[in-house]
């Protein structure tokens, strides 16, 4: 929720004809406050429908898992958002505990063949991280054979993950290729989760200042792995998947669009 506070004071003094004109003083205080998301499914709408911020502790209820996590937006201007996620997890070290993320809401439901570009920027840092942290920093994109499909559901056909950081985590499936996209080398993994295929692109080095077009990833999947460009893009998220230990991931600037 964004709350606005506006304060103004107007003073006027009148006197004899020879007195100076009365000074006018106005002060405007504009303060944005964002919610602290600490509940399992807490969300917040950001930017009048541009993004939704999710805490998304989807793996916390598995027996043997314990921990906590909070997520909070830090800034929003134009279409650029900043946010922070802080977590500490233990138990079931091979399982994802959560996916705190920002989801783009505009431009979805279009066929890949009709999309020209998917420009994005993402600047982030670990302001605190355990030396043995197991986690990734990743985009999560969803495809469907229908325009009104939803991610992580029976209407999903493909999940495409783009890992900008891999700290001891393992993508679903096994490595099937290595490719270069946008001047960066990526290991390509393929796996199966529930009813959809997952392709994961894992960067060879940690990319903390990422500025790219994501459309070439789909062009590659079409030409090299048979993913049809008639598929609909139904989800575009960016966030972090922690498996084990503690960390604080701070995003100072993130943007995404579908053109």
UniProtKB/TrEMBL annotation:
Stretch forming the signal peptide: 1-19
Stated family: Belongs to the glycosyl hydrolase 12 (cellulase H) family.
Classification lineage: Eukaryota, Fungi, Dikarya, Basidiomycota, Agaricomycotina
Pfam families for this protein: Glyco_hydro_12 (PF01670)
Alphabetized UniProt keyword annotations: Carbohydrate metabolism, Glycosidase, Hydrolase, Polysaccharide degradation, Signal
An annotated GO BP: polysaccharide catabolic process
Molecular function terms, GO-annotated: cellulase activity
Keyword Transport assigned: no
Name used for this protein in its record: Xyloglucan-specific endo-beta-1,4-glucanase A
Protein origin, superkingdom: Eukaryota
InterPro entries linked to this entry: ConA-like_dom_sf, GH11/12, GH12
């Amino acid at each position: 929720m964004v709350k606005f506070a506006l304060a103004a004071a107007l003073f006027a003094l009148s006197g004899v004809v020879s007195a100076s004109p009365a000074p006018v003083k106005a002060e405007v205080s504009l303060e944005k406050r964002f919610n602290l998301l600490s509940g399992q499914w807490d969300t917040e709408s950001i930017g009048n429908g541009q993004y939704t911020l999710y805490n998304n502790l989807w793996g916390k209820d598995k027996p043997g898992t314990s921990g906590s996590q909070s997520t909070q937006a830090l800034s929003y201007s134009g279409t650029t958002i900043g946010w922070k996620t802080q977590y500490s997890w233990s138990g079931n070290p091979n399982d994802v505990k959560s996916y705190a993320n920002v989801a783009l809401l505009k431009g979805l439901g279009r066929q890949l063949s009709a999309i020209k570009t998917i420009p994005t920027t993402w600047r982030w840092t670990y302001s605190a991280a355990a030396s043995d942290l197991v986690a990734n920093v990743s985009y999560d994109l969803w495809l469907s054979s229908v325009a009104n499909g939803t991610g992580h559901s029976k209407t999903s056909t493909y999940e495409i993950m783009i890992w900008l950081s891999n700290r001891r985590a393992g993508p679903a499936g096994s490595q099937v290729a290595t490719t270069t996209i946008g001047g960066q080398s990526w290991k390509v993994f393929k796996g199966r989760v529930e009813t959809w295929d997952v392709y994961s692109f894992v960067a060879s080095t940690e990319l903390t200042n990422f500025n790219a077009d994501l459309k070439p990833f789909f062009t590659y999947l079409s030409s090299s792995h048979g993913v049809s460009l008639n598929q609909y893009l139904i989800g575009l998220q960016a966030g972090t998947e922690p498996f084990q230990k503690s960390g604080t991931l701070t995003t100072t600037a993130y943007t995404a669009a579908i053109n």
